């Protein structure tokens, strides 16, 4: 499927310039698996981009490379706004990562879990109290600061994980299938909360998902990837305006976008292995 121009009308903040550019990024693991081959992609400031693709197409690998958790074996990442001489990586670019599992510390409170990234920067609980409580308020959990993870539902644990990502006030939020393990009602609620926060705070979000429906609901841009080797095969605009709500979920525009994204995904699966290694 051919790429269509990206129309970001209706996004929380109009994209200005790339926050990060992947330039012919490849990743070959030691066992010779080509997880990514020549991935070229600009992520623009303020966008909500979904990486959509079948299992094994390199979505998590791409996210980990952007996060600085893994290095490309070829190609490069360019951060146009980085301070001259700054080390590329999470610190400089104010990146936060949300994983599929909430990965909370079970032995301590919600407050302490959210405080962790600030504690790692040597900020005491007292000095961080305002920031932690603000992050908990963002996700509607301010009344649960003294609760323990075992007292929370799966959706609430994921909210804590999101609060922990937000407490450092990131510019770029990387989310690797954050809602995949949740039931559909909880997932829809968290989808709405995430969109509300994105509109309010204007971060850039890169969101990995297997779900056509979730990618269309959330994103103003869907990057479709194929596997063996992992690569970008389509770049689709979802030009429906925000705020999006249940009316959008049941609209013709939504089903039209879902059909286009499904077709692109089918084409991606059919193309697997076409371009070899
Ligand atoms: N550390 C590693 N060593 C070797 N191969 C790896 C490693 N990590 C990932 N791979 C392989 O690289 C390819 C891409 O993996 P990746 O996890 O990025 O895909 P994905 O699209 O995120 O998949 P999923 O949707 O199943 O999470 C897969 O074939 C995977 O098995």
Automatic annotation (TrEMBL):
Boundaries of every ABC transporter domain copy: 20-252
InterPro entries cross-referenced by the UniProt entry: AAA+_ATPase, ABC_transporter-like_ATP-bd, ABC_transporter-like_CS, ABC_transporter_ATP-bind, P-loop_NTPase
A matching Pfam family: ABC_tran
CDD domains membership: ABC_NrtD_SsuB_transporters
This protein's UniProt keywords: ATP-binding, Nucleotide-binding, Transport
Any one GO MF annotation of this record: ATP binding
Keyword Cytoplasm: no
Tagged with keyword rRNA-binding: no
UniProt cross-references to Gene3D superfamilies, sorted A to Z: P-loop containing nucleotide triphosphate hydrolases
Sequence similarity: Belongs to the ABC transporter superfamily.
Protein name (database record): NitT/TauT family transport system ATP-binding protein
Source organism: Stappia indica
Phylogenetic classification of the source organism: Bacteria, Pseudomonadati, Pseudomonadota, Alphaproteobacteria, Hyphomicrobiales
